[in-house]
Design brief:
single chain; mainly alpha; globular
Length: 209
């Protein structure tokens, strides 16, 4: 995991599944009418909460799986399927619509501060992110690998924070068409990574060589 190729793959997977550019317009919609200071505070709080949640899943996720009797290879296959379905949603633009619906529901219940819900959960730390983190933890060979994965997670969350802080600029620069194209390209990459997770899991069961 500490070699550069594995780190790039881990970063790519986390970046695609969290999709910072795709979160930017949702963040704008959820913070309409707020001043710059309020938006900045919500962005920072959402990323800090997300980091804490991700660390819990990174260090305890595999232990929970072991407690309930699920092997990492089985989880790799199930996780790969989940990520592939997420990729299909991205390719057919269903994911962004679902995020906007979740954001709208969250605002109805927590209109004063959306940083924890729905921003941190489930928009940043959603099922796909949780699955990816546990899969990466399952590939870790030692403390150095966990440090590397932690660094990758924090780097992606830092990019999310930058996307939130620059959300207005990103939306104007890309436009709706640009965001749609970017989402589809990332969806294709995620589909390929999901297939790789499934193949790795099958190999663990001695299927496919």
């Amino acid at each position: 995991m500490t070699d550069i190729t594995a780190l790039i793959a881990a970063f790519t997977t986390m970046f695609i599944i969290i999709d910072p550019p795709g979160l930017a317009p949702v963040f704008i919609a959820m913070t309409q009418g707020m001043n710059a200071a309020q938006r900045r505070a919500i962005a920072i709080r959402a990323c800090l909460v997300s980091a804490c949640l991700m660390m819990v899943f990174l260090f305890l996720g595999e232990a929970v799986l072991g407690f309930i009797g699920i092997s990492m290879d089985a989880f790799r296959i199930a996780g790969g399927i989940l990520l592939f379905l997420t990729a299909l949603d991205m390719l057919f633009q269903k994911r962004q619509a679902r995020r906007e619906d979740n954001a709208a529901e969250g605002l109805e219940e927590h209109h004063d501060d959306p940083s924890v819900f729905p921003l941190a959960l489930p928009l940043i730390v959603g099922p796909g992110a949780i699955t990816t983190i546990i899969l990466l933890a399952g590939q870790a060979q030692g403390a150095s690998d966990f440090v590397a994965i932690t660094g990758v997670i924090l780097l992606v969350l830092f990019i999310v924070l930058l996307a939130f802080l620059a959300s207005n600029t990103i939306e104007r620069a890309l436009g709706k068409t640009g965001l749609n194209i970017l989402t589809r390209v990332l969806g294709m990459l995620l589909a390929a990574l999901a297939v790789q997770f499934i193949l790795d899991g099958l190999r663990g069961f001695g299927i496919g060589g």
